[in-house]
Amino acid sequence: MSAISWLLILSGVMINAVAQLLLKAGTNSIGTFAYSAENILPIGWKLATEPHIIGGLACYVISVVIWIMALSRVEVSVAYPMLSFGYIVNALAAWWLFGEAVSIERMAGIAVIIFGVFLITRS
Question: What is the pTM of this model?
Answer without folding.
Answer: 0.83
